[in-house]
Design brief:
Layout (H helix, E strand, L loop, with lengths): L4 H25 L6 H12 L13 E7 L4 E4 L5 E13 L7 E10 L2 H8 L6 E15 L2 E15 L1
Parallel strand pairs: 4-6
Antiparallel strand pairs: 1-3, 1-5, 2-3, 3-4, 5-6
Amino acid sequence: MSLPQERITDEITEEIRTYWEGAIIKKTANKKTTNKKRTYKKTIMRKLPKNSVVSEYVNQVSLIGRLSGEPFEKVLPSGDKVVEFRVVIERGTNSVKDKRKIVDTIDVAAWSALNRKVALKLDENSWVCVFGSIRRRFWQSPAGLASRWQVEASDISTL
C-alpha cells in the first residue's frame, strides 16, 4: 500500500510536530515556577505513549517511513524473542543540482509480544510509524565484543 507524500506530510508529520511543540510550549510557559522539572515531566508524560518512561532526560524517537524488507524474528540464546526490521526515511536531495534522494536506514527492534505480533504482519515497502527510544546493544562475537544502535519500539502502527 502506498500513500501520497502530501498525506504523510500534512496529516501525520503535523500531528507529531504538534505533539512535541505542545510539550515544549507548556515547558516554556512554566519555566519560572520552582518545580519546573516536575511540571515538564508531567507535560511530557501526557504527550508520550503510555509505555514511555520519562525522567529529566528524554530518549524518545518517532519514525515515519517505509520498510526496506520483511521483518524477521530471532530467538536469542537467553530464550527471548525479538522481531527486527529496517525503516527507510527520505531526507531530501543532496543539493539543488543533484536530484538523488538521500535516505536514512534505521534498525528497529520489537521486544514486547504485542509489538512483535504487529511487526510480523508488516509487508515490505509498507508505510509504518514507530515510537520508541534509541538503544545500544552489546554482544560477544567471534571477533570480540560487538555493538549496534537500534530503536527499541514502544509502539508500531501501519499508515
